[in-house]
Amino acid sequence: MKIVTGETMQGLDRRVIDEFGIPGLQLMENAGRGCAVAITEAFPAAARAVVVAGKGNNGGDGYVIARLLRESGWEVRTIVLAARAEIGGDALTNLQRLNPESLIFSPAPGGLLPYRQILDEATVIVDSLLGTGLKNPVSAVYAEAITLINGSGKPVVAVDIPSGIAAGSGEVLGVAVRAAMTVTFGLAKIGHVVYPGCEYCGSLKIVDIGIPAEVSSSAEGVDFVDSVTASRLLIRRERRAHKGAFGHCLIIAGSTGKTGAAAMAANSAVRAGSGLVSLAVPVVLNPILEVKTTEAMTIPLPDDGQGFLGSTALPAIVGAWEGKDSIAIGPGMSWNTATAELVRQVIRLVTAPLVVDADGLNALSEEVEALANKKSPTVVLTPHPGEMARLTGASIAEIEADRLGVARAFSVRYGVYVILKGARTVVAAPDGRLSINGSGNPGMASGGMGDVLTGIVTSLLGQGYEPFTACQLAVFIHGYAADLVAGEKGEIGMSAVDVQEHLPVAFRSLN
Q: Is 424 annotated in some ligand binding site?
């Protein structure tokens, strides 16, 4: 599903008006009608609505909704947070179509309190205050209205986006309406699907307002990966296929005390469908990994008896990656000088698709420019916000404030694929493409989850998926398997191995 910014959507509206000759008044009518239908379908027993409207086009949509609900037999009052003289254009045309006796104009701060009873008596409140053009924090009478709406305890239907949510980032601009349902137009907006905005939207319904398909399809947007999208990404298997058809991946991982990370990455690659998996580990740890992995093969690497890998392991690693379809490095390797230099040497030498995670990312953070000398055309980095902060030199707060922008900028600059983990994980490609993941839950906030994801990404790359698709599908399957675990066991106490074991079920559910 494509999602866009508010600015992009406004540009589409202008193009439809200018190039296709569809009047703005007609688009407003279509939007209001779509909302009115959604309201009556969602609340069939309701009979009393209060529309709280602003003076712009979002308010104009609300005036259409008020008229259509009234025509269908509802009792409707419309509270306008502006003076009549402030309203113009298409919004004024639709305001004039309303029964004057149903209108209340309350433009001044403090003027809404006498109308609290009207809100309390409503069965549905319609929020058509601010829309997707909002850029600055909500203040004055608008902030008061939002506070009263949220305090009413009534179900709220937001028109286009809950008032107070930034359409391009999901940021709460001071205060925001908490809706039971949001009805948006043409395309979903980024603020609908990322946190914290998505928590304010309730259920999201997208209605067609007559924007030609050629206009929508040409819009610059971001992919939102849900189960429908993920199913389309999945490559169906030939019935006569054999293990050689599904890739042989190599995972370089592990150090003393961190054998679990190595095992989870390898076992997850198996569960994600790799034909063969080899796990390269420090030789002193090989007996442990022989026990922790059954289907994966182990490759003991020279470690000078230290339990971690350094430059003496490089010749063996170069030999091990011959004939491999994808490679991962980093899980549980430890962060020390010798290991960090080994990671950077591997990045400079390997030509196969490469996934760098965990301590591999820590090694890169000391010398990010090592990426400029990479030989592989496909390098995937899988940082969480803390790791991304170390890679970029920004603070975690800065990373979280602009996850899409940070991921895209780094990806384009260094020619790598970035999976920026977190709630609504972001995937960025070197050509500027962006994707937001729609699966997962808070139960995934536990150790080892990143190692599972590394195994899945490496597996899909080895199976021949296009890199951006491999990243998108891996992230979705990872979260979807966790959602399946949550459905069976709950979120609290969920382990990475629980998710790993549910990977085949997750794939089956999409197939």
A: yes
Is there a binding annotation on residue 247?
no
Residue 291: its pLDDT value, please? 96
- The answer, yes or no, to whether residue 505 has pLDDT greater than 80, is yes
The pair phi, psi for residue 15, each rounded to 5°, is -65, -40
Distance in angstroms (rounded) separating the CA atoms of residues 427 and 424: 10
Distance CA 184, CA 132 (A): 10
CA 423, 130, 186 angle in degrees (round to 5)? 65
* Mean per-residue pLDDT over the chain, rounded: 96
Q: Is 34 annotated as a binding residue?
A: no
- Spatial contact of 159 and 35, defined as CB atoms under 8 Å apart: yes
* 405 in a known ligand binding site: no
Query: Which positions ≥6 away from 184 have C-beta within 8 Å?
Result: 160, 161, 192, 204, 205, 206, 207
Report pTM. Answer: 0.93
Residue 196 annotated as lining a ligand binding site:
no
Q: Is 205 annotated as a binding residue?
A: no
Residues 186-215: tens digit of each pLDDT: 999 999 999 999 999 999 999 999 999 899
Which tokens in the block code for residue 8? Answer: 């992009």
Q: Is 275 annotated as a binding residue?
A: no
Task: Say if residue 441 carries a ligand binding annotation.
Answer: no
Annotated binding residue at 186? no
Q: Is 486 annotated as a binding residue?
A: no
Q: Would the pLDDT of 318 be above 80?
A: yes
What whole-number percentage of the chain has pLDDT above 90? 93
Treating both helix axes as pointing N-terminal to C-terminal, what angle do 403-414 and 385-392 enclose, rounded to 10 degrees? Answer: 50
Q: Give the tens place of pLDDT for each residue, 151-172.
A: 999 999 999 999 999 999 999 9
Domain annotation for the chain: domains and CATH numbers: 2-220 (3.40.50.10260), 230-510 (3.40.1190.20)
Is 423 assigned to a binding site? Answer: yes
Say whether 88 counts as a known binding-site residue.
no
**Helical spans, DSSP H, in 358-466:** 359-366, 385-392, 396-401, 403-414, 449-462
325 marked as binding residue = no
18 is in an annotated binding site: no
State the average pLDDT over residues 277-299: 97
Contact present, 181 and 206 (Cβ < 8 Å): no
Query: Confidence band (pLDDT; 50, 70, 90) for 482?
Result: very high
132 annotated among ligand-binding-site residues:
yes
Name every residue whose Cβ is closer than 8 Å to that of residue 477 and which is 6 or more positions away in sequence.
Answer: 230, 272, 439, 456, 503, 506, 507, 510
Annotated binding residue at 263? no
The reply to whether 359 sits in an annotated binding site is: no
**Binding site annotation covers 97?**
no
Distance of CA 75 to the CA centre of its chain: 39
**Residue 160 assigned ligand-binding role:** yes
* pLDDT exceeds 80 at position 46: no
